[in-house]
Amino acid sequence: MLLRQNRDHHAAGSERTAGVLYSFGAFTMWGFLPLYWKALATVPSPRILAHRIFWSFMFVLAVVLLKGRWKQTVGLMSGRRTWLMCSVSAFFIGTNWFVYVWAVNTGHVVESSMGYFINPLVYVLFGLVFFKEKLGFWKSFSLAFAFGGVLYMTVMYGRFPWIALTLAVTFGIYGLLRKIAKVDSITGFFFETAILSPIAITYLFFGAVLKGGAIANTTFTTGFLLVFSGVVTATPIIFFAHGTRKIPLSMLGFIQYLAPTLQLLLGIFIFKEQFGTVHRIGFGLIWFALLVFSLSHTPLMRRIEPGSKHTGGG
């Protein structure tokens, strides 16, 4: 019995470790993604989105075929609930992709990063409401500081931050749907891109006809980047879906701060976007929250946690 419990504990630990690694990989790739979309700045955002959808579908189709999972995938296609869930998640991820590409290529990388700083708060909220996840004192304390930073930037921004809030909400809902979906990450992403691909193909076809062969006149470099956008889109989102299913949403929410931090640094130092006092104060509160959260697992923080049996003298 003890041996079996140890094996189960080890297996659970391995699953969580794998989830953390998948999540770190996904958010690191997403953090550097603005560099990729900036290289396609001369291409209209709707066209980038259409290519992104279609080539993502082709990439994940190849993965399904190479893994010998075609029959299994086709069998799942008959499920009405599966199609409904994937249709809804496809809508939210498609909206997220379009707004993000448009924002990056119109000089809003810093505000986009703000959206992904808000997004973990959405995950934590979903984790508390839908999965009854527990945070503990220090995690709650860090969440409060992160919320304060986001709220400060939102109030002081001077205008309604619709880009940030749209990115946060759409990706938050997408993450929730992928958490509760009864399909694995590759199958789910295959369904989502299969649902969106007819729209993307129709747009590309009529765009080429109306603009006199715009696709044919694309340079080799631009064409390559458009085709390869399927790989850079599918890989992190498959990693993300793997990670979502293996770790609590509250943990995933804080790991996700990696991507907007990288995006923020790109926005400030590479793309030279404005980063004033409001941003410094708001992001400072968020980074302090991350520090507290990171230390919340240490023996020192557990000893000084209010209500802990280790607190106090004697």
Task: Identify the notable features of this structure and list them briefly.
about 80% helix, about 325 residues, mainly alpha
User: Radius of gyration in whole Å, from Cα?
Assistant: 21 Å
Mean pLDDT: 84
Low-confidence stretches: none
Tell me how many strands there are. Answer: 0
* Largest sheet descriptor: none
Order of helices and strands: HHHHHHHHHHHHH
| Structural class by helix and strand composition | mainly alpha
Q: What is the overall number of helices?
A: 13
Helix content: over 70%
What number of domains? 1
Q: Could you say which overall geometry the principal axes of the C-alpha atoms support? A: globular
* Residue share in β-strands: under 5%
Separation of the first and last Cα atoms: 38 Å
What does this structure look like?
- The chain is an all-alpha fold and 314 residues long.
- It has one domain (44-303).
- 80% of the residues lie in helices and 0% in strands.
- It has 13 helices and no strands.
- The chain has helices spanning 2-38, 45-66, 70-76, 80-105, 109-131, 136-156, 162-180, 185-210, 220-246, 249-255, 258-270, 277-295, 299-303.
- α2 (45-66) crosses α8.
- 40% of the residues are buried.
